[in-house]
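Model: Ready when you are.
Researcher: Fold this.
Model:
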Amino acid sequence: MDYLKPFLLHLLDQNLATKTLHRHRDSLWMLGGEVIRRRQEDTRLCKLAVEKAVFELLEEDGGPLIWPRISESAQRSFDATCRKLYRYVMTTELGLI
């Protein structure tokens, strides 16, 4: 996934607190796990390239609901990272979507 490293470097350039950077990193890890879970359950997602499958799950408002359920505050934090990733990809010339 060629867009994750540039996205993480972009976050580093923003001089965010270490705790915030770790939260975003952990949310990306959670997103990857959710993509794997959903691809196992949905044959349509399984047939898509990984990048396309990720962006099938992302929206401008956030990411997918995580299963098994996480706390509301953890979901909000996860959604914040997904929104940042979505905006980053949409505003850069990565050509994924």
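Researcher: Now this one.
Model:
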Amino acid sequence: MRTLAGIFVLLMSFAVPAVAQDAAPNPPQDQPAPQDQTAPPPAESPKPKAPPRHTPKFELSAGFAHRSYSLGAGSSSVGMNGLYGSVEYNWKTWLGFAADGLGVYNRVDSNQTESIYTFLVGPQIYPFKHRKLTPFGQFLYGAGYYRENTSPYGGFGSATKTDLSRAWEGGGGLDLNLRKHWGIRLVQFDYGSTHFFSGSGAPSQSSYRVSVGVVYRFGER
């Protein structure tokens, strides 16, 4: 009897730890460390940079010009149409020098025509440098040439009257740059003065000029 009791106690002494081990929860397996659910905000994509401003070294422009001449105080003005051409050298991004040639023409009547030509040079200023829309101002000084032709009529022969004088012009304009090399001169407005036949006592002639044209740009400052 005591032997049975001892065997029972011995069995229980082995069984209790085994049951306890079975009942014990399995130790947690290695798990990856929890990740921080608060992810950093995505980095902002860099803002596109504005394209660099292109300042050409040279600009060529040509187009239509209308000039209204007043031959003196109290006299009526004469409208003349023609063409202009200019060459511009940009010394700085905001400062250049221009050479401008202009020829305009008017038919006075069936027998008489008159034409005026000017060649002027001077500084040109770009207050906002060169952009898509580029305004500019200028003051030009040089020479003007007047020519009047009268064809034969009523027994009189043909006659030509000419004169050369100093001339100046001041104003400005606005260019629209469509591409790197090409643009449009949307408008150019200038006020000027000539002094034809001043030796014979004629008054100076004031004028207003309006021009439109195309612009070709090359080189880089």
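Researcher: Key takeaway?
Model: Residues 3-24 have pLDDT under 50 and may be disordered.
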